């Protein structure tokens, strides 16, 4: 999987696919998922579709390949194809795994889902989150690189603002001292909006944020991420 990831980073997707097919691990979904992630980053829709189909054969009930293929189509502007993927998921009874993030403090482990308001400090967390988002909005007002898609509706953006990792980071900013890095774990791949937000928060708050998602560790510091925006 690491070899496939390295080849994918170099844009050598054909070599990565050949490596998988020639290896004894060609029936392992995780190695194909690595290639699928590379297909999305390099916008290789045709290969991405074939790779996603292969993963669906190996793990028909796993939502990850469907979601990745949906995003590939969405990035390519193929909205009708993206819509069909959602229909296929419904037909096959495949449900997207809910995103869950958690952070460990002295008081214990605190977990969140998107839009979570069950935490006893919920009001304080959302007030801190609003302050965080206000600060990064000021940063993006002068730097529009990597900003959000025009296709995102106001409701969708509001929901992304409440993604679980943002809530966990807000709690960390409230309770952890300035010198302590904020460490958050997530069960799914971090979305692009949250990845961009984490970079901006690390800059606006002058804090180190370490986010471990389903793909890799992300070390955010001074507006940059250790993954170099490849994940």
UniProtKB/TrEMBL annotation:
Domain DYW: from-to ranges: 150-231
Xref: Gene3D superfamilies: Tetratricopeptide repeat domain
GO molecular function, one term: RNA binding
Biological process annotations from GO: RNA modification
Domain of life: Eukaryota
UniProt cross-references to PANTHER family, sorted A to Z: DYW DOMAIN-CONTAINING PROTEIN, PENTATRICOPEPTIDE REPEAT-CONTAINING PROTEIN
This protein's name: DYW domain-containing protein
């Amino acid at each position: 999987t690491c070899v496939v990831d390295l080849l994918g980073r170099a844009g050598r997707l054909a070599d990565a696919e050949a490596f998988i097919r020639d290896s004894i691990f060609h029936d392992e979904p995780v190695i194909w998922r690595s290639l699928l992630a590379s297909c999305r980053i390099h916008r290789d829709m045709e290969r991405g579709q074939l790779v996603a189909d292969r993963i669906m054969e190996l793990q028909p009930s796993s939502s990850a390949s469907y979601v990745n293929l949906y995003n590939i189509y969405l990035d390519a502007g193929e909205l009708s194809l993206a819509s069909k993927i959602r229909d296929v998921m419904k037909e096959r009874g495949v449900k997207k795994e809910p995103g869950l993030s958690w952070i460990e403090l002295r008081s214990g482990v605190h977990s969140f889902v998107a839009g979570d308001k069950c935490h006893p400090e919920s009001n304080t967390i959302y007030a801190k989150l609003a302050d965080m988002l206000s600060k990064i909005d000021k940063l993006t007002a002068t730097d529009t690189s990597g900003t959000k898609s025009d296709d995102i509706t106001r409701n969708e953006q509001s929901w992304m603002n409440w993604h679980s990792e943002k809530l966990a980071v807000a709690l960390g900013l409230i309770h952890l001292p300035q010198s302590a890095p904020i460490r958050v774990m997530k069960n799914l791949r971090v979305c692009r909006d949250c990845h961009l937000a984490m970079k901006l928060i690390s800059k606006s708050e002058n804090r180190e944020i370490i986010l471990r998602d389903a793909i890799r560790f992300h070390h955010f510091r001074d507006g940059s991420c250790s993954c170099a925006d490849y994940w």
